[in-house]
């Protein structure tokens, strides 16, 4: 890897969380990092690779990342004309699922209602990020790269998968295929991924992708949207910080018609 010094690291972590002197949970697990790079070099290297012409015989290149991973390095986005797509979800729905993911990821064993995703996270300090990274990246892309990036709402995708994906394929100039909405139950797709393999391995260990690997299609939403007053304090903060940006992005989404 150019411009990167690879270092193989296995970190064994045992962290006890306390509140007012009282133990409220334990993270007991390990994080494996297959390649730790100097960040400036790794961002530069990634930008360089994504800006190269497609390999012979390839028609499309999909790149997926979380907004929080690039929010402080927006100048490192590819310099070639990618069509940026933002997948959004109502914060009222995503607040609790985000908490569950973090609790699983850190193997938190305390009471769920005592967990605080902002202050009991031994790896990622959310207070160091802007309140709504996807919204901030979307605004940057609109102002500097593409005034009309694609926005897909998760509820639309689950409820109207074929209509939504047909609209998406039209927006990015890719022929639609029926196989995009039905697939075989399998995790074999992992072998085709180029990216952070250690993250995918850890995701499998904590069953973060279990429902996805066991699925064969998009399933309509059946659960009601949570009420704000029923959320935990950190969940309510999550909604407050993300709701306005979500609504603005939602208004510009692809509409399944």
UniProtKB/TrEMBL annotation:
<protein>
    <submittedName>
        <fullName>Branched-chain-amino-acid aminotransferase-like protein 2</fullName>
    </submittedName>
</protein>
<keyword id="KW-0032">Aminotransferase</keyword>
<dbReference type="GO" id="GO:0008483">
    <property type="term" value="F:transaminase activity"/>
</dbReference>
<keyword id="KW-0808">Transferase</keyword>
<dbReference type="InterPro" id="IPR027417">
    <property type="entry name" value="P-loop_NTPase"/>
</dbReference>
């Amino acid at each position: 890897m150019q411009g990167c010094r690879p270092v193989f690291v296995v970190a064994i972590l045992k962290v006890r969380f306390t509140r007012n002197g009282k133990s409220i949970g334990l993270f007991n697990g390990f994080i494996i990092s297959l390649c730790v790079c100097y960040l400036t070099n790794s961002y530069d290297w990634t930008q360089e690779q994504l800006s190269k012409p497609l390999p012979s015989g390839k028609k499309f290149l999909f790149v997926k990342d979380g907004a929080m991973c690039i929010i402080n390095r927006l100048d490192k986005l590819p310099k070639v004309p990618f069509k940026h797509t933002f997948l959004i979800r109502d914060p009222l729905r995503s607040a609790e699922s985000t908490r569950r993911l973090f609790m699983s990821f850190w193997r938190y064993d305390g009471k769920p209602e005592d967990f605080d995703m902002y202050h009991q996270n031994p790896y990622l300090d959310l207070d160091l990020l802007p309140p709504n990274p996807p919204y901030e990246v979307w605004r940057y892309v609109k102002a500097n790269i593409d005034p009309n990036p694609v926005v897909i709402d998760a509820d639309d995708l689950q409820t109207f998968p074929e209509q939504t994906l047909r609209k998406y394929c039209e927006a990015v100039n890719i022929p639609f295929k029926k196989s995009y909405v039905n697939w075989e139950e399998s995790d074999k797709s992992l072998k085709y991924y180029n990216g952070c393999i250690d993250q995918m391995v850890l995701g499998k260990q904590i069953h973060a992708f279990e429902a996805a690997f066991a699925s064969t299609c998009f399933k309509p939403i059946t659960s009601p949207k949570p009420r704000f007053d029923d959320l935990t304090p950190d969940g309510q903060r999550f909604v407050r910080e993300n709701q306005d940006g979500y609504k603005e992005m939602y208004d510009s989404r692809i509409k399944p018609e």
